Amino acid sequence: MGRAWIVVILGLLAAASVHAVEVHDVRLWRAPDHTRIVFDLTGPAEHRLIVLENPGRIVLDIERTSLRAAVDGLSLDDTPVARIRSGIREGRNLRVVLDMTAEVEPRSFALQANAQAGDRLVLDLYDKSVQPVAAAKKSVRQAADARRDIIVAIDAGHGGEDPGALGPRRLREKDVVLAIAKEVAALFAAEPGFKPTLIRTGDYYISLRGRRDLARQQQADLFVSIHADAFKRKEAYGASVYALSTRGATSTAASYLAQRENAADLVGGVSLSDKDDVLAGVLADLSMTSTLDASLKVGDTVLRRVDGVAKLHKRQVEQAGFAVLKSPDIPSILVETGFISNPGESQKLASHSYQRRMARAIHAGIRDWFMAHPPSGTLIAWQRQSGGRQYTIARGDTLSGIAQRFNVRLSDLKSHNGISDSRILVGQTLLIPTT
Fold first, then answer.
1. Fewer Cβ in 10 A, N or C end of the chain?
2. CB 98 within 8 A of CB 73
3. Would you say residue 1 lies in a domain?
4. Are 378 and 150 in contact (CB under 8 A)?
5. 10-residue block means of pLDDT along the chain (435 residues)?
6. How far apart are CA 63 and CA 349, in angstroms?
7. pLDDT for 287
8. Which residues lie below 8 Å from residue 26, measured CB to CB, with a gap of 6+?
């Protein structure tokens, strides 16, 4: 080969290596306290973050990288970013400039490719004006007599850049479970004596530990995480309820699903170690506390309600090492509403009517548990202690018949139990108002 050809080949190789990496997609999500921008890369790349003032700008320099994705189509509504510009610096480095409308605290980090996603560069813009989330005061009704509401933390799994499992026709788990979670919250919001708090209110990412922390900030009495997962075989079907296991999974499916759910932090860019000293110490003694026992019992109550809506994968509460359930002081359960990878169940999960039915089952199961075991200091506990009678609905019962039996007005019976229509379920516990 002649010297001229060698020079040409070396020149072509040098030109190809100028931009060794490409940004093939850019995605943006708005969370309550920050804005996340994710750059999907074809390979790893070094980067540098620069903050400039007057006017406020954030500059991201990515070495030996070119932009092959459009940034002008990103929706910047409700974000502190006014405009995103880009260009090539020094002939080889990509420079992305964000024109800001508000002061933020930027953080950037690179994520290596893994089984869930390719190489990414993540830019988080944390709002500086956001006030810290105040812990919920457990005296919602009246502070004087401490008849507080029971606080239920409802967690819609996944979100943002983490879509969760994908079903036929690109049905995304994160969308299905958020719809169900909102239905559950609406049911509890209309229920006297209960106060729901949604862990995720929109399409954005929260780490598994962050979900637990939000529930703790709200001083929740129960944490319920809602999912619709996938399995290796599309024939797998059925709803399930899980509690934490500190030893091992109760089945192969439970172990597989826990691994999948825990991998959500790989997608979101959080270390899976998740073993801070305090939590590790408490988890060692978790089986000696009432938290896990309560989780199993409330899980069983929910499972019996779900059995009336969906076929069950297992007829008992299963256990596995779900990271999102590792709250040492809050009873926590995870509800798998079905396998989104199963074509038949996926079609049901996409239906608003089925989502509402599943939500009603989850709500009824949690309500059944707390009506029978209300935390001290709550309105429900006060009603039980103040001589309020209880009645467990049997087959053939009607609300009007129960009201007549106990000589109370039907409207008072419905109002006392947060019932808006006349539907009741066998096994449901009613509080009978005092006359």
1. N
2. no
3. no
4. yes
5. 52 55 94 94 95 95 94 92 94 94 94 84 88 50 62 96 89 96 95 93 92 94 94 86 80 70 65 48 52 92 93 90 85 95 94 96 94 90 73 84 85 81 80 74
6. 44
7. 45
8. 37, 38, 39, 40, 69, 70, 71, 74
Nearest to 261 by CA among 363, 253, 302: 253
Predicted model pTM: 0.78
Q: What single-letter amino acid sits at 248?
A: G
265 lies in the same domain as 404: no
DSSP strand pairing (34-41 vs 120-127): antiparallel
Query: According to the model, what pLDDT value does residue 143 have?
Result: 38
- 23 and 164 part of one domain: no
What is the distance between the alpha carbons of residues 49 and 106, in angstroms, rounded to a whole number? 8
What pLDDT, on the 0 to 100 scale, is given for residue 404?
Answer: 84
Give just the sign of the alpha carbon dihedral 312, 338, 321, 327. negative
Bridge partners of 25, per DSSP, are: 40
Tell whether omega for the bond before 55 is within 30 degrees of 0, i.e. cis: yes
DSSP string, 228-280: ----SSTT---BEEEEE-SS--SSHHHHHHHHHHHTHHHHHT--S----HHHH
Query: Could you tell me which residues come within 8 angstroms of residue 231 by beta carbon, excluding any fewer than 6 positions away?
Result: 253, 256, 257, 339, 341
- 230 and 313, same domain (yes or no): yes
Both 235 and 186 in one domain: the answer is yes
Nearest alpha-carbon partner for 362 in 160, 149, 170, 181: 181
pLDDT at position 232, please?
78
pLDDT of residue 269: 62
CA–CA gap between residue 395 and residue 428 (Å, rounded):
11
CATH assignment of the domain containing 61 = 2.60.40.3500
Q: How many domains does the chain have?
A: 3
**DSSP conformation class of 169:** G
Q: Specify whether the CB–CB gap between 300 and 317 falls below 8 A.
A: yes
Helix 290-306 / helix 352-372 crossing angle, nearest 10 deg: 140
Instruction: Report the largest interatomic distance among the alpha carbons of the chain, rounded to a whole angstrom.
Output: 106
- Token pair of 367 as six digits: 């309500």
Domain that holds residue 338: 150-372
CATH number for position 357: 3.40.630.40
Cβ proximity of 65 and 45 under 8 Å: yes
Are both 367 and 398 inside the same structural domain? Answer: no
Q: Tell me the β-bridge partners of 41.
A: 23
Burial 132-157 (b: 16+ CB within 10 A, else e): eeeebebebbeeeeebbbbbbbbbbb
